[in-house]
């Protein structure tokens, strides 16, 4: 009697990417090419990506060609510029890299900027410096304008001016049906709604226009305190926040910075706490409001003062270089003294916390005010955001992430529920789903079925099927 034969392994169809490459103004790279690795690597080095091919798009027409090719070959599509917002490993996907879409034009007559998908906030800030104009960037100027804004855009002036997505006038976007569309509140209201907060679920942004602010100078920076003063500073900050006007935006971060290039000597190798502060108004007013924090402990560094608004990245001084990290995030309804004590137990100086940074950002101010044109951005009414970052060898990162998740669970009595899309990167589709209310998530899914009938954006950051 013959032995039963094992079933033959399923064959994976071979995709002829050469046909796509010949139709591009840009370039296509398959695994093995040195540029492939460069373009496929995200900012977080702990995430290993393996797209089937990478296209360095030269223009919007290239993006259209890629989406149509992917639809014809049943391939998922992903997009990357700086790689800060990666949501999956892109396995088997056609990855479109947009760094060459780098046109950036500022108009001082209309106080607007027109940017391509590859432009970072650093470019907008630099060009705006001579004009006294600034956009609502995030804490890290190296992040891409398009990805940041499509996630809502909650930055270091959010209490004063709201979300970056509220300032958008138009998008140029390639939807999943392979169409290049110009979306405004008037021409494509549903698409315009979803692109402001919905991240990558409805299309690939190739360009956008948004409003700038006339704000040449801000009163801003950070105060740094040593280990012995962490507890008092955090308690003082929690009681100080409710007194602040909407012209002030602040966050506080407990940090364990290693001795390495770029870390100021007073902060290197010790447990410290930083109070970040941006005030829109006169320096005297800003100093008056900040006074309670300046007296909360002995200062290691006082780096708060008048500065050009183009230097706003110095407030947080987020790392610019790629590194392996585990990040976790949640939203809080409130941050009373009881919550302070709980956070100190989990991540304070005596906790043996593995986190490089644990940050609390105050929200509120004008953020809860809805824009004239509605958007998909949710959870505007949250009082605070909690965010943690741990850095280390990839094998150790799951344990660091587990510590952060336990810390967040301990903060549950003050939870608002949900998270913000730009802070949920790398934590899976479930975390992104929590960035939206059920009704908004359902509307995004309905729009995705309309604009992406072939489901080519199934690796998008919002579960749409």
Uncertain ranges: 1-12
Distance between the termini: 48 Å
> How many strands appear in the DSSP assignment?
19
Number of helices: 13
Largest sheet: 8 strands, antiparallel
- Helical proportion, percent range: 25-40%
The fraction of residues assigned to DSSP E strands is: 15-25%
Overall average residue pLDDT: 92
Structural class: alpha+beta
> If you compute it from the alpha carbons, what radius of gyration comes out, rounded to the nearest whole angstrom?
23 Å
Quick one: overall form?
A: globular
Folded structure, characterized:
There is one protein chain. The protein has 13 helices and 19 strands. A hairpin with a 4-residue loop joins β8 (168-175) and β9 (180-183). The N and C termini lie far apart (48 Å). The strands form four sheets. Strands 12, 13, 14, 15, 16, 17, 18 and 19 form an eight-stranded antiparallel beta sheet that branches. Strands 5-6-10-8-9 form a five-stranded antiparallel beta sheet, with helices on both faces. Residues 1-12 have low confidence and may be disordered. With 465 residues, it is an alpha+beta fold.
Q: What's the helix and strand layout?
A:
Layout: H1 17-21, E1 27-29, H2 34-40, E2 53-56, H3 60-72, E3 77-80, E4 94-97, E5 104-107, E6 112-116, H4 121-129, E7 133-134, H5 145-150, H6 158-161, E8 168-175, E9 180-183, H7 189-195, E10 203-211, E11 213-214, E12 217-225, H8 230-240, E13 248-257, E14 270-279, H9 283-294, E15 299-302, E16 305-308, E17 325-332, H10 337-347, E18 357-362, E19 384-391, H11 397-410, H12 428-433, H13 438-451
Helix pairs in contact: 8-10
